[in-house]
C-alpha cells in the first residue's frame, strides 16, 4: 500500500533526541525550554512541549530548505496521502490555500471558484491579482445551507470562460457535502488547466472507503487540508499536497517560502509528523469508530421532537454526490431556536461547545477523540432543550434565502487597493464595496471587494445581525458602516 515505512516519525524523533540529550540552548526562543517562561503558563502546559519549541538548526532541519528530517517527514506524508509532493504548513490552511492559488494564477488571470468559499480563497485572489469567476452551489432549502457545485455547473462555466487558468472547488463543504470530484477533474483537465481543491475539511477522507473520495485520489492537482480539524495534529498545522503535471512544484515551493514565517513552530511541525503516522497506521479503524459514534448520535437526535440532523438522504439532492457522516448538522428552527440560540444554551447551561452555529443550525464535528459518554451528554442536553421549548409558543422561522451573487465591476485586488470612504451600510446600495462581508463561521463571503452592494445583501446582513449571528469583514466591528470605492476615475471606467 505504502512505499515508505509509515511507522516512522523522523522530525518528532529528532526533537525527542534534542530533548533527551538535555541540550543547552543558546538559541531562540528566549524562554529556553521553559526556564524563562512565566510559571503560571509553564505549569499548565508542562515543560516537555516547551523543550521542543526550538528554532532552525541542522539537527531539526529547515522548513524553507528541508534536507533532513523535515524533508523525510514531508516525503512520508506525500506517500501516505497519495501525492507526489507534500508541504507542511504552520500558516494554517488559510496560508496553504493562499499559496495554492498564487502558485497557479497571477495578475489578470481568471480563476473559477464557487461562491461558498472560505475568505482565505478571496484573500489568495487579492494577493495574486487574479479575476474570480463565480459558480453557484446548489442550495438545500430545508436547512438553509449551500451544498456543492455540480460537474454540469463546472462544465458550463468553463465553456463560458475557456481562457480560465484554474478551477477551484471546496470539497467537502464545512457541513460534509462532497461533489463528483472525479468527474470535475476530468472536465477541468480537458482544458489543460489545474483543478485545485480546498479540502480543509477532508484530511481523513483518504484513509477510509466509507468516506467520500479524497482530492488526490480523485485526480486533483493540488489541495490544502486542515490536518488539525479532524486528524490529530495541532491547531494551525496543515498539509499542502501536489500532483505533478499541471502544477509547477518549484513555483509552489517558492510561494510557500514567501508566505511562511522563517521561525516555524516545531511543535506544530512535529504534530503533523505524528498525525500522519497515526492515520497511515491506524486511520481506518479510528475513522470507523468515529463514523459509528456519529451514526448513533444522528439516529438519537432525529428522534428528538423538532430537531433534524441530515444524513445520507442529502445525496438525493442536486449538488450532493458524497457525504461525510462524521459531520453532525442539527437544525433547530422547528423548535423556535436559531442556531445561535441553541449554541448559547448548550455552552452556557451545559458547557457543550459546538463547532459553529448559523441561522438555522449548529454543527458538531465528530472525530476519534470523541466518546459515547460525551455524545450522550450532548443528546441528553438536546432532549431537555426540546422539552423546554415544547412548552412555549413556537414561531417557526422561514428559511432566509442566501443573496444572489452581486455584479463584479472591479477585481478584488483593485477594489481593495483603491481610494475608499466609509459610509453607513444602509446608504451603500448601488456602490462598489471595498471590503468583505461574511457570516462567520464558516467564513463564506456575502460580498467581496469590487462587487456592487445590493439591497438584498443589506437586508440579509440586517437579518443575520437580528439573529445575533456574527457578521464580519468590515473595519467597523458592528458592520454599521462599510468602505466603498471612492476613486471616481475607477468608478467612471467600470460603472
Please give a quick description of this structure.
The chain is α+β, with helices and mostly antiparallel strands. The chain has 17 helices and 20 strands. Helix content is about 40%, strand content about 15%.
Architecture overview:
The structure is a single chain. With 495 residues, this protein is α+β, with helices and mostly antiparallel strands. Helices cover 38% and strands 15% of the residues. The strands form 6 sheets. It has a 7-stranded mixed beta sheet with strand order 1-10-9-8-6-2-3, sandwiched between helices. Helix 5 packs across helix 6 (119-128) and helix 5 (92-104) packs across helix 11 (249-259). 51% of the residues are buried.
Question: What is the CATH class of the largest domain?
Answer: Alpha Beta
- State the end-to-end distance: 57 Å
Task: Determine the number of helices (DSSP H or I, runs of at least 4 residues).
Answer: 17
- Provide the structure class: alpha+beta
Q: How many domains comprise the coordinates? A: 3
Looking at this protein, list some descriptive labels.
Aspartate Aminotransferase, domain 1; single chain; 4-stranded antiparallel beta sheet; alpha+beta; 495 residues; 17 helices; 7-stranded mixed beta sheet; Aspartate Aminotransferase, domain 2; 20 strands; Ornithine Decarboxylase, Chain A, domain 4; globular
Amino acid at each position: 500500500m505504502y512505499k515508505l515505512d509509515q511507522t516512522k516519525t523522523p522530525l518528532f524523533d529528532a526533537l525527542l533526541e534534542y530533548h533527551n540529550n538535555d541540550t543547552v540552548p543558546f538559541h531562540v526562543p528566549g524562554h529556553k525550554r521553559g526556564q524563562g517562561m512565566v510559571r503560571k503558563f509553564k505549569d499548565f502546559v508542562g515543560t516537555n512541549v516547551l523543550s521542543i519549541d526550538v528554532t532552525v538548526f541542522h539537527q531539526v532541519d529547515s522548513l524553507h530548505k528541508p534536507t533532513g528530517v523535515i524533508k523525510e517527514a514531508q516525503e512520508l506524508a506525500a506517500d501516505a496521502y497519495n501525492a507526489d509532493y507534500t508541504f507542511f504548513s504552520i500558516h494554517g490552511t488559510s496560508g496553504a490555500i493562499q499559496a495554492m492559488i498564487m502558485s497557479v494564477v497571477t495578475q489578470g488571470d481568471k480563476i473559477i471558484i464557487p461562491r461558498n468559499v472560505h475568505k482565505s480563497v478571496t484573500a489568495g485572489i487579492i494577493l495574486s491579482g487574479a479575476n474570480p469567476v463565480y459558480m453557484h452551489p446548489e442550495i438545500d432549502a430545508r436547512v438553509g445551507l449551500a451544498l456543492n457545485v455540480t460537474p454540469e455547473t463546472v462544465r458550463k462555466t468553463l465553456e463560458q470562460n475557456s481562457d480560465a487558468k484554474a478551477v477551484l472547488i471546496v470539497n467537502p463543504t464545512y457541513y460534509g457535502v462532497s461533489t463528483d470530484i472525479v468527474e470535475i477533474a476530468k472536465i477541468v483537465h480537458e482544458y489543460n488547466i489545474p483543478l485545485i481543491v480546498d479540502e480543509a475539511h477532508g484530511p481523513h477522507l483518504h484513509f477510509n472507503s466509507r468516506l467520500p473520495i479524497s482530492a488526490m485520489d480523485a485526480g486533483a492537482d493540488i489541495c490544502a487540508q486542515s490536518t488539525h480539524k479532524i486528524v490529530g495534529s495541532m491547531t494551525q498545522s496543515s498539509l499542502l499536497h501536489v500532483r505533478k503535471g499541471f502544477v509547477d512544484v518549484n513555483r509552489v515551493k517558492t510561494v510557500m517560502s514567501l508566505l511562511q514565517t522563517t521561525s516555524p513552530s516545531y511543535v506544530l511541525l512535529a504534530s503533523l509528523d505524528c498525525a500522519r503516522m497515526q492515520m497511515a497506521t491506524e486511520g481506518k479503524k479510528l475513522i470507523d469508530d468515529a463514523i459509528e459514534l456519529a451514526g448513533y448520535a444522528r439516529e438519537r437526535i432525529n428522534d428528538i421532537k423538532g430537531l433534524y440532523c441530515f444524513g445520507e438522504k442529502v445525496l438525493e439532492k442536486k449538488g450532493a454526490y458524497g457525504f461525510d457522516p462524521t459531520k453532525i448538522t442539527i437544525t433547530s428552527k422547528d423548535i423556535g431556536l436559531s442556531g445561535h440560540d441553541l449554541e448559547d444554551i448548550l455552552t452556557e447551561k451545559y458547557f457543550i461547545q459546538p463547532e459553529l452555529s448559523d441561522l438555522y443550525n449548529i454543527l458538531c464535528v465528530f472525530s476519534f477523540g470523541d466518546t459515547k459518554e460525551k455524545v450522550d451528554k450532548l443528546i441528553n442536553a438536546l432532549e431537555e432543550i426540546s422539552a423546554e421549548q415544547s412548552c412555549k409558543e413556537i414561531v417557526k422561522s422561514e428559511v432566509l434565502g442566501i443573496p444572489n451573487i452581486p455584479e463584479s465591476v472591479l477585481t478584488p485586488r483593485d477594489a481593495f487597493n483603491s481610494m475608499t470612504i466609509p459610509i453607513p451600510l444602509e446608504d451603500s446600495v448601488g456602490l462598489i464595496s471595498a471590503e468583505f462581508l461574511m457570516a462567520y463561521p464558516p467564513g463564506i463571503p456575502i460580498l467581496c471587494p469590487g462587487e456592487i452592494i445590493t439591497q438584498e445583501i443589506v437586508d440579509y446582513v440586517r437579518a443575520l445581525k437580528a439573529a445575533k449571528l456574527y457578521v464580519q469583514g468590515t473595519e467597523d466591528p458592528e458592520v454599521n458602516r462599510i468602505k466603498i470605492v471612492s476613486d471616481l476615475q475607477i468608478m467612471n471606467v467600470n460603472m
